[in-house]
Amino acid sequence: MSEKRERQQLYRSESIKLLYNNAIPGIIITFIAATTLTFTFIDNGHRTWKLMWWGVLCAVLALRLVDTWSWRRCREKHRRVRAFHLRFSCGCLITAALWSSYFCLFERFFTLEEFTSTVVILSAMVGGAANVLSGSVMLASYYTLIVLMPWSLMLLDSPLDYKRSIGFLGLFFTATMIFSAIRSAKYIRQAIALKYKNQRLVDRMEDTIRERTQKIYEISYKDALTGLSNRVAFQNEADDMVYRYKRGEIPGFSLFFIDLDGFKSINDALGHDVGDRVLLSFSNRLAAFQDSGTLICRWGGDEFIYCTPQTDHAALRNLAAQMVKSFNQPFYLREQEITLSATIGIAICPEHSTNLTRLIQIADIAMYAQKGKQPERVLFYNHQLEENLRSKVLLQEALNNALARHELRLVFQPIVDSRTREIRSFEALLRWKRGTQIIDPSVFIPIAERSGQIVNIGYWVLEEACKTLAHLPAEETAISVNVSVIQFQDQQFLAKVNRLLETYHINPARLHIEVTESLFHSGQSDLTDKILWLQRQGIKISIDDFGTGYSSLSVIQNLNIDFVKIDRSFIHKIEDKGLAIVEAVMNMSHSLNFRIIAEGVESEEQAQLLRRCGIHYMQGFLFSQPVEMVDVFRLSGSRLLHPAPESVL
Q: Which Gene3D superfamilies does UniProt cross-reference here (predicted)?
């Protein structure tokens, strides 16, 4: 019963809303039609009576405008009052009566033109009312009857045939308009009913969403995997700790930003299920250090935050050391032993900051600065760490435009035949001079690799090397170019190399590409496919820094590597254990058919030992430092019996 009453109230409310929303257009049209009809035929008789009729109609329309304005000003709940419906109906029906009275009062004085105009206007007003008043079928029907019925019946009694015909048409039109109003009202009622159903459905959905939102809110402060506080909960609780410090209730607090070392490789190798179990086990170990006043949070991924009221450096270092010791213990998951560690950055309030966001940031900076360093896994924040980070960021930004500003250039270091000391090739080395500052490659190359800029820079290096090759007088002289793993991963790498060879008409055998052993450690088969493609084109492949990283003799054998460069660290120790390494690599070269280049040769003694070992080529300051491009053309094909003049690098 209550639903039926609610639906009836909705019908009444929507009907009133529809009537009043259509009121102003109807009033305006009525005013225009009445004014046009009155003043077009004002010269006909009964001028005073017509003006009085027009004035009364205008007064009624003005009252209806005031009523409409009053309805629009009301609050939504007051718009449903029946009084509004009654007032609107009265105004509308009075307007209808005035229209009908115009015809009945003045018809016997009409000219044919006025008669025709009046019939057309009254019929049009009724036709428009069928839609404008469709919110109330009774009102639309009464309006039609009042406007059309009186003069239609009056015309039936006329002695003129055409008037009697119009009278019959008026009655027919009356019935048609009433039927049309009923049908329109029916559609409106159905639309209101559909709106009611939709509103009920929306209300139920809102109730369901509200319930679920409440449940989500109840669990939103816990990390779903570990059960620790999440970011939202931690920030709320830590904000309270900041507030307590500012009120003098606690002397301060410290934040440990903890990041797992090697977690990504566990996820990649063993799967995310194992990774999740590792995180859960790790969080349990971290929770073992929780006591009164401490907060623990899973910040995201494999990052955690531990907040303690302690501020003493010695106590904090001891606590962090205990954590690292606990984290270093193997995790046993389904008979699988997993070992990893964690790096901890520490920030202290108020020593470093009193702002929570800032404390989290600088603890993260300290952790990042210590990441991967052995054996210490704990670092307190200091301003120098942030300066170093800012310096790297600024260098990265400057590196973005280094090519455009022509700050990068190539220098070339000769690689000589160990027996004749004739220059067989040059290694292209990248240099960056920013203003008066010379940036070391060991600084900016890692930045370029991390930011992805190494791809564009690498292609620039390749093109500059090819330009140089194209103009070298000694056609047998080659240039070797270091190519980053990241550049190798570029899908366009092979096409661009091929384009450079064709553009500068270079014999592919004169281009040597150097890769580090880490390329083979990446585990991507398409990278080795690219190397094989390069070799099929005739390009020579060198493995740089051999022996310092991931070594795979099977890879060297399968790829038929052309050159292996023994890292300078072994050459510097050649008179000690380095000689054994050199001899071992030399023996492998006979079996696997690759040539050896010794890097970092700085003394004649080293050169003689390497020559006796059978090393094929040597490179180092003994023969020449890296030289500018102009010197490459002078030195190409020559013998370096003595060190070449030093270049300004």
A: 3.30.70.270, EAL domain (3.20.20.450)
Quote the tokens at residue 144: 């039609």
CB 513 within 8 A of CB 540: yes
Summarised one tens digit per residue, pLDDT across range 299-313 is 988 999 999 999 999
Residues 6+ positions from 616 with CB-CB distance below 8 Å:
417, 418, 589, 595, 596, 597
Instruction: From 352, 353, 326, 321, select the one nearest 339 (Cα to Cα).
Output: 326
Residue 490, both tokens = 């570029």
What's the half-sphere exposure (Cβ side, CA atoms, 13 Å) at 71? 26
Measured CA to CA in angstroms, residue 67 lies from 72, 397, 642 at distances of 9, 68, 109
Compute the distance between CA of residue 7 and CA of residue 200 in angstroms, rounded to an integer: 11
Show Cβ contacts of residue 68 under 8 Å, excluding neighbours closer than 6 positions. Answer: 20, 23, 24, 27
Which token pair is 36?
A: 């046009």
408 and 460 Cβ atoms separated by less than 8 Å: yes
Q: Which residues of 556-587 are buried (b: 16+ CB within 10 A; e: fewer)?
A: beebebbbbbbbbebbeebeeebbebbeebbe
| Distance in angstroms (rounded) separating the CA atoms of residues 569 and 600 | 8
C-beta atoms surrounding 128 within 10 Å:
16
* Cβ proximity of 211 and 315 under 8 Å: no
Write down the pTM of the prediction.
Answer: 0.54
Asked if 489 and 524 touch (Cβ cutoff 8 Å), the reply is: yes
Whole-angstrom Cα Rg for the chain: 46
Q: What is the pLDDT of residues 475-529, one digit of tens each?
A: 778 999 999 888 888 889 999 999 999 999 999 999 999 987 666 655 555 777 8
Task: Tell me the Ramachandran region of residue 479: left when phi exceeds 0, alpha when psi lies from -120 to 50, beta otherwise.
Answer: beta
* SS3 at position 297: strand
Supply the DSSP string of 218-252, one letter for each residue: HHTTB-TTT-SB-HHHHHHHHHHHHHHHHTTSSS-
Residue 564 near residue 586 (C-beta atoms within 8 A): no
CB atoms within 10 A of CB 591: 9
